[in-house]
Write a structure and sequence with these properties.
Rossmann fold, 3 domains, 6-stranded mixed sheet, 13 helices
């Protein structure tokens, strides 16, 4: 073993979270103890994401080991690095003291033994288990969280989708031809363009220009386009008007046929679901741009699990879609009543709306292709990057994907604000001209909800 390089001991929680973690340590050596293989074996049954990750991690290990009989000298982790590290599968479990044996204690004992044998190397236990890291540090051992899947160092650095139009001395602004829908366009040239992203909304506080969206960026120039006004003085979408600038930006993205994927972040009451459903109903039932609306979400209970639910797929998902029903009721009331329309006709219209809306479970998404669908992924902050990739790649021609969530409310074990699949999508798509993102900051539900968000 090369002196000076680190030696990482992987806990099963790391491989269950990211099966490809074996290849993330570059030139350093990786230990996967027997007790970790036993943990993977216990988790491999079933169709959950954890079970799939356990099976994939086992397949990666099998590919590396191959037909080799000599595991003592280590196996090269050939993943394109100039000097790849080696994989070791130690047969010894470490000297565990008295008391019941468990995975954590055996990993700590093995870490202690390896640190004693390789005193010139930094021996680090890598685990997603916070308590195990605390126990390791209490015993004077090095322990770290697995951070290779971290999108950002801090969630505060996440792209917000909005910026301020501030032109410097070397920047120039010209009025361009009238764009789509009779909207004014502008051309900006200069260094300021380097800080912008396609689909970003720019606010000119000097009031020289209306609110604009960045449509195109080329080298040192950018093309801006004025946005629609869906506010109190503008047009409504299925009876809904934007109550603040961020909601107006969101509706512009949701109603734009050139935008294929939209991500909306914000705490409860900012209008994410309401705005999305309003635009989905308008474009599905009135503009007929989409054949139907498909909505899905991860089913993680906030309190105690109520057990298995009876019925079909949509009936099982029903209790998880309370927010959907609440917002549909609001939209059914806000849609103006036509002259001579009876309450029976209004109720029939509500049934028609529900007939064009499908509720699907994440468990049955693999292998599907959605054509001309308005796909809404609710509570997307609870999905991993791999799950988000699985869902977004289901989109076929004519499909729009909208991801909603609040990264401050993550219920999935081992996911954080910086490793959530929603954070991953926002960061990876910010340079693509057919995507858009907005962080909604102002709550519009009620003064009670807004005050509770601030003080509780």
């Amino acid at each position: 073993m090369t002196q000076g390089l680190k030696l990482f001991i992987l806990d099963a929680t790391v491989l269950l979270h990211d099966p490809a973690a074996l290849y993330r340590f570059e030139e350093h050596d990786v230990y996967v103890p027997i007790i970790v293989l036993e943990d993977l074996d216990r988790h491999k049954e079933g169709g959950s994401e954890t079970a799939r990750n356990a099976r994939q991690a086992s397949r990666f290990l099998d590919e590396i080991v191959g037909a080799t009989d000599d595991l003592a000298s280590g196996l090269p982790l050939d993943h394109g690095a100039r000097a790849p590290g080696r994989l070791y599968i130690p047969l010894d479990r470490g000297a565990v003291g008295g008391g019941p044996r468990n995975t954590g204690d055996e990993l700590l004992a093995l870490t202690r033994d390896l640190a004693g044998r390789h005193q010139r190397r930094s021996v680090v236990l890598v685990t997603k288990d916070i308590n195990l890291r605390i126990k390791a540090r209490a015993q004077g051992l090095k322990a770290e969280d697995y951070t290779s899947d971290r999108v950002l160092e801090d969630a505060d650095l996440l792209y917000r989708g909005t910026g301020e139009l501030q032109l410097g001395a070397r920047d120039s602004l010209e009025t361009g031809p009238v764009g789509s829908g009779g909207r004014a366009t502008f051309s900006v040239r200069g260094p300021v363009v380097e800080t912008w992203h396609p689909g970003e909304f720019l606010v000119d506080k000097a009031a020289r220009l209306p609110d604009t969206i960045v449509r195109e960026i080329r080298a040192d120039s950018a093309r801006l386009e004025a946005i629609y006004d869906y506010g109190p003085a503008g047009q409504a979408v299925w009876g809904i008007r934007a109550r603040n600038a961020e909601q107006n930006f969101a509706l512009n993205l949701l109603m734009d046929p050139e935008i294929d994927i939209v991500t909306l972040l914000g705490h409860a009451g900012t209008g994410k679901t309401l705005l999305t459903l309003a635009s989905a109903l308008h474009q599905t039932l009135e503009a007929q741009r989409y054949a139907e609306i498909v909505m899905t979400r991860v089913t993680i209970p906030v309190g105690e699990d109520i057990g298995f639910l009876p019925g079909t797929e949509e009936e099982k998902m029903g209790p998880w879609m309370g927010a959907l029903e609440d917002n549909l009721d609001i939209l059914n009331q806000t849609e103006p009543k036509r002259p001579g329309q009876s309450e029976w006709a209004r109720a029939a219209a509500g049934d028609l709306i529900r007939s064009r809306l499908r509720i699907k479970s994440l468990n049955f998404m693999r292998g599907r292709t959605f054509l001309r669908k308005f796909l809404i992924i609710d509570e997307a902050q609870n999905l991993s990057a791999h799950q988000m990739k699985t869902l977004i790649t289901r989109a076929g021609p004519g499909t729009k994907v909208v991801c909603l969530g609040n990264i401050a409310q993550i219920d999935t074990p081992y996911l954080t604000e910086t490793t959530s699949g929603l954070t991953y999508v926002v960061d990876r798509f910010k340079h693509w001209p057919h995507s858009g993102h907005i962080t909604l900051a102002r709550g519009e539900r009620s003064r009670l909800a807004d005050f509770a968000t601030d003080v509780l």
